[in-house]
Amino acid sequence: MSNILTQNDIRYVDYKDVELLKQFMNPHGRIIGKKRSGLTSKQQRMVEEAIKRARFMGLLPYIQK
């Protein structure tokens, strides 16, 4: 099963790449789980860390209405 990160050969998830990070969030602003996104454990941790950093820097919202 292939995922977005391996298809595009992305080895490091940058917190400034907001469009990529939005693909791993649901419409309410929550992070999608590993089973649903199809990521490996290492990739999921990188995505979660990048989303949390982007939220802290104000690039992504914590919640959406």
Which range does the strand content fall in?
under 5%
Please estimate the helix content.
Answer: 40-55%
Oligomer: single chain
CATH superfamily: Ribosomal protein S18
Number of domains: 1
Shape: globular
Query: What does the main sheet amount to?
Result: none
- Taking all residues together, what is the mean pLDDT? 92
CATH topology descriptor? 30s Ribosomal Protein S18
The parts where pLDDT drops under 50 for at least 5 residues are: none
Label the CATH architecture: Irregular
Strand tally, please? 0
Notable traits:
65 residues; 30s Ribosomal Protein S18
What does this structure look like?
The chain has helices at 4-7, 18-22, 34-37, 41-57. The longest helix has 17 residues, at 41-57. It has a single domain (4-57), classed as 30s Ribosomal Protein S18 (Irregular). The mean pLDDT is 92. By secondary structure, it is mainly alpha-helical.
